[in-house]
Amino acid sequence: MGRTTPNHQIEGGSKGAKVGNPDIEVRHTICSICNPGSHCGIDAYVKDGVIIKVEGTKSHPHSAGTLCPKGAASRQYIYHKDRLKTPLLRTGEQGSGRFEPISWDEAMDRIGETLNRIKEESGPETVAFYVGYSKWMRPFVKRLAHSFGSPNYCTESSTCHTATVVASELTYGGFGDPEIGKTRCLLVWSKNPFYSNPSAIRRLLDARERGMKIIEVGPLITPLTAHADIHLRIRPGTSGALAHGMANVIIEEELFDMDFVENWTLGFEEYRAYVQQFSPEETEKVTGVSSRLIREAARLYATTKPAALMTSASPTVHHTNGVQNHRALIALVGLTGNFDREGGNVVSPDTYLYMSAGVGSRQYEYEQSRPWSEMAPRMAQDKYPIWSGMIAEAQAMHLPFQIQNPEPYPIRGLVAFGMNYRMWPGSDFMLQSLKKLDFMVNVDLFMTDTCKVADIVLPACTSFERSELKFYPEKYVMWTTPVIKPLGESRSDADIIFDLAKRIAPDDPLMQQGYEANVDWILEPTGIRLEELKGHPKGMMLKDVPKIRYKKYEERGFPTPSGKMEFASTILKEEDLDPLPTFRESRLSLVSTPELCSDYPLILTTGARLPMFIHSRTFRLPWTKRLRPEPMLDINPRDAKERNLSQGDEVLLSTPRNSVRVKANITEMVPPGVINIFHGYSEPEVNRLIDPDYLDPISGFPGFKSLICQVEKAMRTGERHK
Question: 556-585 pLDDT, tens per residue?
Answer without folding.
Answer: 999 999 999 999 999 999 999 999 999 999
